[in-house]
């Protein structure tokens, strides 16, 4: 099955996993900047990370025939220190024109604090200024509904941002309709042991359809599965979805969203 894994943290994954993804049919990956599992001690730590995302990972992916794209920002977890976050944000213009950078992400909220919100809004303004696509992380568990509402209201205050160029990720049953009704793209993230799984994601797709939605594993350094999309495809087939429908979700939709950046190379017809 040909697919795109549009949200995954390959810096945390092994070469064997690149190989397994390629063998399963993965043609391209999207890797937003995020928390590395530890707090970086200086802005220079982020400079190195941005080099890794724009030089090292594309080279690793290319060995398996995969295109590698990335998104730049300081993640919400490390954005609690506003002065530090601004120092990191100053590095972004230096990297934004690199050939695999699609936009600003994954920005958003972690614990829904006012400091996180300040930096989230400054990232949105930067995306408007630099005419970039936006990829948004929503908080988990009990913080998700409130955080998603805060995010949507900050977006609404920026009419210059075209909702079709913004994706709000990690949606669940209670936040998916809010994001879709507001006109944004919605992301469904599959986790092996907690949060959304293939069955719950398939339920949401049955209820709301496949328009303006992508699915991903967001696999990182924790308990996660870089092949989660193949499990979702099997769940969809089991429920009677057609191959065209599965392909729309797993290939056509990420292509349509990421393809709004002129840097994205279409893979479905290659
Ligand atoms: Zn992520």
UniProtKB/TrEMBL annotation:
Keywords: Hydrolase, Metal-binding. Coiled coil: none annotated. One of its GO terms (molecular function) is hydrolase activity. It holds the Pfam family TatD_DNase. InterPro entries: Metal_Hydrolase (IPR032466), TatD-like (IPR001130), UCP005295 (IPR012022). It comes from the Bacteria. PANTHER family: HYDROLASE TATD. Belongs to the metallo-dependent hydrolases superfamily. This is TatD family hydrolase.
């Amino acid at each position: 099955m040909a697919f795109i894994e549009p949200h995954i943290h390959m810096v945390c994954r092994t070469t064997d996993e690149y190989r397994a993804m390629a063998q399963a049919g993965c043609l391209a990956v999207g890797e937003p900047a995020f928390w590395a599992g530890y707090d970086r001690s200086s802005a220079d730590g982020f400079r190195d990370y941005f080099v890794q995302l724009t030089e090292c990972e594309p080279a690793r992916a290319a060995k398996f025939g995969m295109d590698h794209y990335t998104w730049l920002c300081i993640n919400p977890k490390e954005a609690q220190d506003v002065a530090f976050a601004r120092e990191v944000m100053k590095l972004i213009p230096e990297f934004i024109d690199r050939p695999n950078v699609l936009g600003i992400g994954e920005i958003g909220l972690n614990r829904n604090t006012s400091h996180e919100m300040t930096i989230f809004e400054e990232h949105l303004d930067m995306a408007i200024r630099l005419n970039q696509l936006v990829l948004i992380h929503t908080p988990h568990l009990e913080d998700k509904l409130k955080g998603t509402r805060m995010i949507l209201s900050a977006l609404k205050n920026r009419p210059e941002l075209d909702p079709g160029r913004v994706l709000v990720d990690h949606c669940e049953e209670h936040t998916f309709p809010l994001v879709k009704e507001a006109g944004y793209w919605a992301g469904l993230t599959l986790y092996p042991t907690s949060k959304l799984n293939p069955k719950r994601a398939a339920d949401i797709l049955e209820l709301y359809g496949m328009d303006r939605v992508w699915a991903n594993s967001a696999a990182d350094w924790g308990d996660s599965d870089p092949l989660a999309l193949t499990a979702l495809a099997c769940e969809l087939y089991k429920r009677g979805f057609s191959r065209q429908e599965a392909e729309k979700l797993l290939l056509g939709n990420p292509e349509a969203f990421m393809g709004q950046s002129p840097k994205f190379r279409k893979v479905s017809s290659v």
